[in-house]
User: Fold these one by one.
Assistant:
Number 1:
Amino acid sequence: MAVKTFRIRLHGREQEVEVEELGAPAGEQSLGAPADGRISKVLVQAGQDVQAGEVLFVLDAKNMSYEIVAPYAGTIGVLKTQAGASVHSGDVLGTLKQ
């Protein structure tokens, strides 16, 4: 994972900090929740091959349902949610490997 270095001033003193970029490993893309809500369906399993546009998760939020689809053909990496789980916008639901 990438590490970035930043200079910050804290209580009048300048310091250098290193921040590790989190997210999916190289070659994988994180699949995020588009809104706060509840996962009503998980339609895939880790290791499953999927096609571009295939529905992976269904999220129910404020009188709406969102279908989270595969942005490209690949293989499901890690699943980080399950049906019935409450999620917040931006939470990682799983990863997709190319």
Number 2:
Amino acid sequence: MNTFINLLADTSTDSGNTIVNSAYDAFQNVVHIVMPVIIAIILTVGIVYGILLGIRFAKAEDTEGREKAKQQLINMVIGVVVAAVIAAIVYAVLASGAIRSLFPTSQSGEKL
């Protein structure tokens, strides 16, 4: 692990810069593959949990139980929306290449 970190830190040569670029490309490829799966899992868990809370809300016999279930439904919706927005932001930032711009290189591949 230390060797990998040292190779990433050594960006003063072309080979070091190539390692950073290839590591970034590998990370970006993994994110492009995994992110849709993560979003689908978040939405699926949210839908199932929402259905269970809806059943709990419908079965509640007193006002206190209904209010508790209603508040849990609101919290669940907020949580799913926040998680989906965070996942979308991460996906958009990686897709835009903004991270790559943190490692500027010249045409010859030298670190600027």
Number 3:
Amino acid sequence: MKNEKFTKVVKVGSAIVKIYRGKVKMKRKKYDAFTVAYYQNEERRRSVFGNFDDAKKATQEIATKIAHRRVNVKELNGADRESYVAALNLLRPLGVPLHSAIESRR
């Protein structure tokens, strides 16, 4: 591996995530390190992987989530999900969105 630039760009829709290759030194040995870099909520985020395949997989997942606007979306646990679905089912026949029902209670 010569002193060459290495950047892999993954684009999904308008989302762009990059992989940069670098070196890390641990106990007098140098190892390849692959840094996945992207922007989330106007902040630069980075994750480092020890092999290219793991970095590439993470890059594809992150780009897909960003493209589908699923980054930073709260995941609901079992009980919260059941409560959410039950509320939607109760409101559906009335044609009232959940946020409207909550706002009317204020």
